[in-house]
Amino acid sequence: MRNKVNQIRIFAAMLLAVALIPIASLATPIVKIKTEYYLVRGRTAQEIRSDLNRKTPIKENGVKYDGYTSWDIRWDFWWNKSHGRCSITTVKTKVDIQYTLPKLQTKIALSQSLQRKWDNYMQALMSHETEHKNIRVRAANEIEQKIKNMASRPSCKQLEVDANRLGYETIEKYNRLDDKFDHLTNHGINDGAVFP
């Protein structure tokens, strides 16, 4: 258990280090967020859990999950050629996020304690999925900064190839961070994103 706590602390420190980049130097990706709900019903915790298991559209490697954050990161850049060198002039990144979450249709019929349990679960689930979104926004920030800070190249074609390589390498880095986050939190269960 102590080893797991240390892993979580190290991971949190890594995320904090990325988050502490001075605000003035941060890129400003355009972030669009959409939420898609699947509807669940039930009057008891067991009925709700059964309906969650039946209706979740989220399946990965044969395992069902209650919530999911899908993402798409795109980047565009422009350059200028001067004195035989090609240099980046402008970079823009865009992040599309889609949350898939359950929505309880029968919440009003539940006891107050079961309503609180559902609310706490949804708060923890949303917090977990929000961190997945934050990881992707940090990836877009880093892509924008790395491409913006590239040294000039002798050809614009080489500049384009190198800039895109930087973008894809950064996405791979953040894919690993995202997977590690799920591993350390057990897909949010360790933080309360479990019902009942």
Account of the protein in words:
The protein is of the alpha+beta class. It has 4 helices and 5 strands, in the order αβαββββαα. It is 49% helix and 27% strand. α1 (2-19) packs antiparallel against α4 and α3 (112-148) packs antiparallel against α4. It starts with a helix and ends in an 11-residue tail after the last helix. The model is unreliable at 1-10 and 16-25 (pLDDT under 50).
Main attributes of the structure:
single chain, 196 residues, alpha+beta, three-stranded mixed sheet, two-stranded antiparallel sheet, 5 strands, 27% strand, disordered N terminus
Chain-wise SSE layout:
Layout: H1 2-19, E1 30-40, H2 45-55, E2 58-60, E3 63-65, E4 68-82, E5 85-104, H3 112-148, H4 156-185
Parallel strand pairs: 1-5
Antiparallel strand pairs: 2-3, 4-5
Helix pairs in contact: 1-4, 3-4
* Measured distance between first and last alpha carbons: 23 Å
Rg result: 21 Å
Strand order of the largest sheet: 1-5-4
Taken from the alpha-carbon principal axes, the silhouette is elongated
Strand content: 25-35%
Largest sheet: 3 strands, mixed
Uncertain runs: 1-10, 16-25
How many strand segments?
5
Oligomer: single chain
Contiguous helical run count: 4
Mean pLDDT: 90
| Element pattern in H and E | HEHEEEEHH
Helix content: 40-55%
**Structural class of the secondary structure composition?**
alpha+beta
